[in-house]
Amino acid sequence: MINKLNLQMMKEEKLQNVGPSKIEIAFQRLGSTSHPAVFLIMGGGAQMIAWPDKFCEELVRKGVQIIRFDNRDTGLSTHFTEAPIPNFSAVLKGDYSTVSYTLSDMAADTVGLMDALNFYKVHLVGASMGGMIAQTIAIEYPSRIKSLTSIMSTTGAPNVGQPDFKLLSHLGEPPYDDRQRYIDWRLESLKAIGSPGYVFDDEAAIRTAGLSWDRDHDPLGMTRQAVAVLKSGDRTSKLQCLQTPALVIHGDSDKMVNVSGGIATAKAIPNAKLKIFKGLGHGFPKELWNEMTNLIIEHIKATD
Question: Model-level pTM?
Answer without folding.
Answer: 0.96
